[in-house]
Structure formats: structure tokens, C-alpha cells
Amino acid sequence: MKAAGVLIVRHGCILSLWREDGGGAGLPCGTVEPGESPEDAAIREAREETGFEVALEGVPYVAMDGPCEVTIFRGRITGGAWLESGEGTPCWEEPAVLVGRSAAFAAFNRGLLAWAGIGIGPERPRLLVDMDGVLAGFEERRAEVMRSRGAPWVPVEEITEFYGAEVYRRRFGEAAAVAADRLMREPGFFAALPAVPGGLEAVQRLAARWEVRICSSPLRGVPGCMEEKRAWLAAHLGEDWARAAILTRHKARIGGDVLVDDRPDFKRLIAEAGECRPRWEHLLFRRPWNRASKVHDAVAEGWPEVERWAERRAERRAEQAERRAGQAAAG
Fold this sequence. Notes:
By secondary structure, the protein is α/β, with parallel strands linked by helices. The protein has 10 helices and 14 strands. The protein has a 6-stranded parallel beta sheet. A hairpin with a 5-residue loop joins strand 3 and strand 4. Helix 4 runs antiparallel to helix 5 (174-183).
């Protein structure tokens, strides 16, 4: 059996794929089909799994992973765009993630990175942070625009359902609900969302002890939503944050310690959808539409509480690591 893939590095991070089956993070890689060369297979797998066209460079790395001979080529992106496929969710990852606790094929990746001369730093605890309703004011923007157009609108504190258009339907009828829903499909809507107070400053402070990654779901059927989200992050936090963001409709696939998200009963919904079991704890970011949530691991009433909770968690992790190191030294 043979497989082939590609190693692409940008800004110290590696083009990676979080597997659909919950198997963890790995390189774009797959089986070499009958009659196919390893080169063609690597290019095809990159296209199918990430959406990018790639060019291969140099002499490949060839090694056995169990019974499978795996060929990995260095490469560079020549075209295409992000694609979330049935195989998994593509994103940029630090080298440590590909050999850490959430990695697929960690031992193989360690040898590959050594061959490529890529240093592996420590794997930090990871905090995943949602955008809409947590960092960016989705319902705030909707209310602002509806009010400015003289249309019926609902104050944010009265949006008591996760899908806010349903509140518009109950209060004002079908036409108002359609208008409220259509609004978010207009070009520029996501790029113009206001920042949730305290969020931008908090994630930058948290990044001192955590690997903080923005993890947000682009809306289906909304052309440009993904690009607008990255543009919003670049404008408010900088290009590095925008580049590192993980935009996916399948957050359960993504490895992390904690997900800060405003979606109520998220883990129950994931289980009902038959998705893989998430590795993260769900820290529910309290908003009016999730007051009735029953399935979450903890609750934060705003960004100051998120920071206090994360600080306590980081301190506990440090104490546990110190105890393990002491036990190992004692034999």
C-alpha cells in the first residue's frame, strides 16, 4: 500500500487537515490510486482535502508508516481557495500540533519534520474562540441595520433564541423574519459587525498563556462570508490572527482544550448530528439567547469571567505538569 501527501509551510505554520472521523490533525495525504504516480496523488489529495492547487518541489521524504509506504513532497500553493471537504477541515497549524496529543500519525510526522529541518516548540494549551456573538456583535448589527431602515427590530437583550429571526417571526410576522434573515446575506454584513466589548483585548491577553485560535462557522449559502470573517479579524486583530483562524462548520473535529462559544447545548447537538466527540470543554459565553442551555461544561458571564476562568485553568495545568515532572524525577 502506498500513500502520498504534501508539506507546505507558511509563516512557521503547516497546512494541515483535521480529520472528519475525529482522528486528529495531519497533512493533506491519501492513498495512491492504481496507475497514479505519487506526485499526481499528492497534488490530487491537496486539491480534494484543502481546495488548493499546489506545485511540488525537491526530493521527497519517503518512510514507512506501518505497512504503508508514504511519500511526502515539499510544496507551495499556486491557486485555489479553502475547501471544507468530507475528509476534514483544513487550516494552518503549528508544528507541535502535528506531533502532539491531537495528532494523526504523530510518530511519522516527527520524523518528517526532523527531515525538513522544522523545529518543534512546546504544545501550549489551546483556547478556541467563536466569533459571532462572542467576539463580534451579530445581533447588535442586525438590530442597528433594521432600525436604520425603518423596519421592525428587536433589541439584543430580547433575542431569546439562538436563531434570532425566529424572534422576529413571533413578534412581527413572516415578512419581518424574512427581512431579518436576508440581511445577513447582504455583502458587507459580516465585515461591519461591531466588536463585543472587552473581547479583542481579552483574547490578546489570553494569548500570553494559551494558544488562542478563532474558530468560527461560515454561514451556508452566504457567498463571501468566509472572506468577510477573515477581513474582520485582520482589521481588528491583525493579519496573523486572520491567517490562523479556523473557519469550519464542524467544530467537533478541531482539537483544543476549551471552546468559548455562545451556542446553547452545543455538545448535545453534536451528538445528535452523529459527529465525532469533541476534545474540548464547552465554556458557554452567556448571551440572552442561551439562558436555557443545559448541556455545557462551564459558563462565563462576559469576557472578564472568561479571563478569570482561563487563568485558573492554566494554573491547574501548570501544577499538574509540575507534579508529573516531580514524579518522573523520583523514578
